[in-house]
Amino acid sequence: MANREFLVDVDKCTGCMLCVVSCKDEHFENSYAPWSAPQPETGQFWVDVKTLERGSLPRVRVSYMPTFCQHCADAPCIPACPDDAIKTRDDGLVWIDPKACTGCGKCEPACPYDVIFFNEEAKIAQKCTGCAHRVDDGLAPRCVEACPHDAILFGDEGAFTGDGLEILKPEHQAEPRVSWRGLPKPWIAGTVIDADQDEVIIGATITVHDIANKTSHQMQTDEYGDFWVMGLAESRSYRVEIAADGYKSVTRDVTTDGDQDLGTVVLSSG
Amino acid sequence: MSKKEDHKVVYVSHPGSGLARSNFPLETHVSGDRIVRSLPFHIPDETRLYEIKTTSRGTYTRPRKEVQMPLAIAHKRRVHSENRVRYPMVREDWSPENPNTEMRGKSGYKRISWDEATDIIVSELKRIHKTYGSMEPVFVQADGHGHSGYMQSLHFWGHYLFDMIHKELDWGWWTQQVRNPDSWEGYYWGAKHVWGFNASLGEPFQDAVWDDVLEHAEVVIFSGCDPEATGLGMSGGIALEMPKWLKKAGIKIIAISPDLNYASAVHADKWIPLKPNTDAALYLAVAHTWIMEDRYDKEYVASHTIGFDAFKAHVMGDDDGIEKNAAWGETMTGVPAHTIKALAREWARKKTTLAVYFGGPKIRGTLSHLAARMEAYVLAMQGIGKPGRQFLRIGAPSFFKKDLAQVPRYPEVDFKGLALNPMIEYAIGHAPMSPSFVPRTLAAEAIQNEQVEWKGTTSALAKTEDQFKSYKFPPSPDHPGIRMVWNENGSQPGSWGNGWKWLEALRNPKIECVVGIHPWLENDLGFSDLILPAQTNYEHNDLIVVQRSDILGMFYQDQAIEPVGESLSDFEIHRMIGRKLGLDDVFPPAEDWLKKAYEGTIAFTKHNINWDEFKERKYFIYDSPTWEEWVDIKKETGFSERGGGMSWFWEKGEGLETPSGKIEFVSSLISEHDPDNTERPPVAKWVSHHESPDQPKARDFPLIVMSNHARYRFHVQGDDIPWIKELQKIQGPDGYMYEACWINPADAKARGVETGDILKIYNDRGIVLVGAFVTERIIAGAISIDHGAKMDLAALRNEPVDRGGSINLISPTPQDKYGDGEIKIPEMNVSGFLAQAEKIDPADIYPGTGGASGAAATSRTAATRGTGSV
């Protein structure tokens, strides 16, 4: 049987939370033996949409990350379980056998993605099963069915290819079966104005130099004097040069520990 | 699910949008008496979808999968909510002789039988008739959204019952609560005086508007517009799809709003935050830039409008000495002058459409008629109706048209395809049915004041001229006033203004009896003397009329589960009372109404599917025309192939409902009927108002509260569902789930506030408690609290507070502004008012007896909102 995979497209997710509520609807009070016992009414998010508020007013955007079990091919939770209760199906979906789980809680900290929950009442660990019960009936997982924007997709191994696909936390080498598109990357943003005239400066050139490897990005400010240099690397040092004809250039050094907002950048004529 | 699972499939109407219409239903799986799950409906392959074809920007259609809002999925938890009313009940210390009115909202209830309950009601109605000589002492509040079935869960039956008591028994009129145009306020009270559009409450018709926008527009301004908030409730999935069309067409989205709302947060290319209620000032400064830089359409202004010079004089300060330039605009709005000028220039240079959705904060705030009028002015200055320059209402309810739907649809489907319930006239009508009536914005005043006088019926579809007519309550000196309240809504304190005043009114000693008819004991229902348990949409058969959508159709809703307790549908409750009064003939069985309504549509008369067949097949969905058919239909109704929206007006230069037929900068009607109204003068002018930051009371209440529709509730509905609370509440240090209050980091710092702190929000009208959410998504000086949180009355030390955070408890009523004089514009203002925020100690909170289950859910908010790094 082919392994199954997910694709999560952060650029498409609008944070509607239909996946979150649909997952609860699917699993609360509903048992799907052998794959899952009922989810408690609250407190568990087998899929959760992490909300990242980014930037500073007025340069603010929100990125949403629908996050669930990454169904790792080399799942760290499996060896962490002393009772062999965490298993991989023939199609690659990873599940915690509710009958075998003794509730020791050792899998929770072993997971790099923080997607395992503890059911206090049933004394078992629980998480996303990839809706194994639906997959067995030839259906897509419930979150995929719920999503109005195709932000979560499900398919056979190899279905999701192309540029820009990433996995979450590759440093854990868990070989997750969830690919991500549009994972948030730091930006450098600001608004360039001429304070004397109280006018925005349209078409100012923003050059972002990567100090370590000597590469650079360039862009122009838009109709509002705004610039957003997107897709930068995390925790790198950049020199930002802001130049416009008839003005003295301004240089700022920043490190991309998260998004960097330079605020209103005033250029003086010169 | 498993193939072994034994379930039946039932189509269930939307739980929130109501008013006898739905969007696509849920496909609900039911096993025995248990709602197992609810899935999205998929429009079958045999139904033809429309295509909007553009010359160079591709083709646009909609997905076959039709999702519902999280609230609809979660609604199964509300069916068995702990607030559910299971039996008829009477307040334990109420009797006709001794109603103990001050105990409303405090004392408990005892169970009674339906027979006892309806006996009490009939005897109360007889007593009122005998004592006062008519039914006019009965104030009927029956205009709420409710559930979305055609008739069973309708919240209008009270009006029908009393109308029949009037017509059949000759017991006289009742007092009708008239629902004001609550999602359109500013357009209704303001923009109608500029361009008419009575049938669409002051917003321009939307005929084929997307053909024009997708073909031509380069910029779309989301003006306080949030299709993500309540989007799925009022328009179904298409409201979420339409912003994606704009992106696909390469159209830039600019969001203008005090908050970076949910749609703007993901769709906007540029956010321009402004102080609440200052849109009019922004438009004035934009107009100033255009005039100074010669960037507006002078020919259009000359041929399509009247009175521009008077507006220009105001912009330039000829009348008041204040030039409304960008620097002035910055002072008023908080938007930097350079951004105002940049906006003005881009707006003039690029084909720009302005978009709205249901009831954003801009259009429900104090003096929102001023914002809407100014908006119409600036749209006129750039030639509204020209290609790509339109007024766009996102979402596709089918009643905003002249002849055609927003998207390709056969006109016969719009006009004859759906069973539209005539009961709607009681709630969204042309005029009150009864001569004794009260606008919903003045409900509390109608009880508390000796007399209240106002202009305009506030009926949604009333003509503009009605806004100059004077009305009063009581309508005559010998009128007994309100003595009984018939509450089918439960939304007055959560969705209308100054809810504290309404709760006080319900305790007025002259109110002898309060009847509540509702599935849940929540909000003001807990102030009832008699409570009759209504059903949810899972508990009865009904017709589902899919009208709040781009694709139209009808479904048959089978009863999914046994009724909870002894509950009955809203219809059956009123029918039972009607029959006890001898009104059997005008209350035939539900099945008769449904069959007759269905048989009036082309599903039967043209497509020949009879009622029994329809019930068997469960739904009938109408095909859309092909693009070629649509182009022909457009030509027949006077539109060009790519035309739409107001293109007809651009082409003709006349034909509006204003007396001149043109866009009126100087309103002919105001000039004639109300020329001295300083708040709404013949030409709109910037005026300060009693909730402005420049008023003396702003020293005590320096923050401006803005209020959006909640994203996961539907107005006051659904706040008791733990799944919904998990999505939107802020867990306080005491574990209670507080309503979220967005506060800018600067305002938070000044008050020593962090996310998760409990705040008291207060002004001269009272106090509510909320949970702080510190965010860059709200402009400094403003706080944002969604309306509709479930009330949970408590005490803060010795002061009464609402721990639930229902912000409308402290929003204004029109009377605040006019005192005891005539209320010239009885507008609703539930956003943009003054308050103060202060951190409180949870130890000072003394919980009430409201039965709130605040700590039942654990919060995910603190862990997931705004705290991530990238």
Question: Could you please describe the fold and organization of this structure?
Answer:
With 270 residues, chain A is mainly beta. Chain A folds into two domains: 4-181, 2-Layer Sandwich (Alpha-Beta Plaits); 188-266, Immunoglobulin-like (Sandwich). Chain A is built from five helices and 17 strands. In chain A, the strands form six sheets. In chain A, strands 10, 11, 14 and 17 form a four-stranded mixed beta sheet that branches. A four-stranded antiparallel beta sheet of chain A has the order 13-12-15-16, with no helix packed on it. In chain A, strands 8-1-9 form a three-stranded mixed beta sheet, with no helix packed on it. In chain A, a hairpin with a 6-residue loop joins strand 15 and strand 16 (250-255). The longest helix of chain A has 10 residues, at 18-27. Chain B has three domains: 89-182 and 435-547 and 569-601, Rossmann fold; 204-411 and 645-673, Dimethylsulfoxide Reductase, domain 2 (3-Layer(aba) Sandwich), CATH 3.40.228.10; 696-864, Beta Barrel (Barwin-like endoglucanases), CATH 2.40.40. In chain B, strand 2 (26-31) and strand 3 (34-39) form a beta hairpin. In chain B, helix 9 packs antiparallel against helix 12 and helix 9 (279-293) runs parallel beside helix 14. The longest helix of chain B has 19 residues, at 114-132. The radius of gyration of chain B is 26 Å and the shape is globular. Chain B starts with 7 loop residues before the first strand and ends in a 6-residue tail after the last helix. Mean pLDDT of chain B is 94; it is low at 849-870. Chains A and B meet through helix 1, strand 2, strand 3 and strand 11 of A and strand 3, helix 1, helix 7, helix 8 and strand 14 of B.
